[in-house]
Model the fold of this input.
Amino acid sequence: MILAVRSLLFQAAFYGWSTLLALCSLLPLALGKQRPIVAIGKLWSRGIDRLLKTVAGIDCVIEGREHIPDGPALIAAKHQSLWDTAVVLALFDMPAIVMKQELHRVPIYGALTKAQEMIAVDRDGGARALKQMLGQAREAVKRGRHIVIFPQGTRTRPGETAPYQPGVAALYQNLKIPCVPAAVNSGFFWPKHGWKRPPGRIVLRFLPPIPPGLDRDAFMTELETRIETENAKLEADTRREFGLR
Done:
């Protein structure tokens, strides 16, 4: 009963917070002011962490920050919940997140992603879409931005597997910057489907970077092995510590 009440309270607080910040973004959107929009995104992200802790009893922990280079890097992370996309807004100065093009059409949210120059990908666009993605990524790297991609292209449940998509290899080979893999257990506390938020601890764990220069197959094997191995450890620890399935 307590879990249900806290989860519902979190849902209400999350949507209220998101609506408030969306309304606050309308003026800078109308004026074409990017920096205030970026600042609002960071505030939104930090507010979500605060709500998770105070309302749902969920701590949010970032591990392995020392593995993130000072200069541009390709951040390739496991994706289990909305939290994964929100947290990077606060972690990095102005990350360029690779996302599906359909999100650009979502009212207000789509305008905000465009204003922050996120990298939109038409997943059915073939070679032309790949070329556009690489062009946007190169421009972001020139400006010192981190590129964030979820290489499986979709959210997965804890323990669930999904193929790693070729876009991450194209970015790695063309940008010639380090790739930092990342594991996450957020799916236990913010499930892909469902509204319950069991108390516990969300962990985003950055791993040692993969230096540029590997061939495509070697890179994809290394990336998938590192992420999936670390995620399995993280998920096993989470199940054991919090008694989750």
About this structure: The first helix runs from residue 2 to 24. The first strand starts at residue 58 and ends at 63.
